[in-house]
Amino acid sequence: MDDVYRRLVRPIAIALGGQPWLPKLNTQIVGIDRLLQKATRGKVSLVNLAGLQGVMLSVRGAKSGIERTTPLLCVPHEGGWLVAGSNWGAPKPPAWVANLSAAAERGETASVQFHGVRHVVTPLEQTGADKARVWRVMVQTWPNYDKYAERTGREIRVFFLDPS
Fold this sequence. Notes:
This protein is of the alpha+beta class. It has a single domain, classed as Electron Transport, Fmn-binding Protein, Chain A (Pnp Oxidase, Chain A, Roll), CATH 2.30.110.10. The protein contains six helices and six strands; from the N terminus they run αααβββαββααβ. It has a six-stranded antiparallel β-barrel. Strand 2 and strand 3 (80-84) form a beta hairpin. The protein is globular and about 40 Å long.
């Protein structure tokens, strides 16, 4: 049944996710997702309901030092998770990108909650050929990443969250 659900719901989620007006609803979508995940102890998210995989990323703020947590679409890959700072193709990247980048530069870890289980991760930004390779993997899961890259004038940064 789970596979049937994904096959039916995922195309609808991809169609909605590619709409140019979606970035305007970012705050509301993230807020609803946080509430849903809190109520289910991280076992259900909007991304999961869409037949996809998601994590709750927690990382210390680059300037404030305060831990920030945000729900993200992810692509499980090679024992970790790939995440893209696409922000639905909005002109500005999401705040978590700067925070995760600063953590990587300082050699700090972050954490993710995946299917209700918390994992400490090392953020590794993907660049050059590595980014091109994992981008292809990510687009297989969420084709809208290519739309977002076309829509925005900035480079979309990609991170591998390594739990080892």
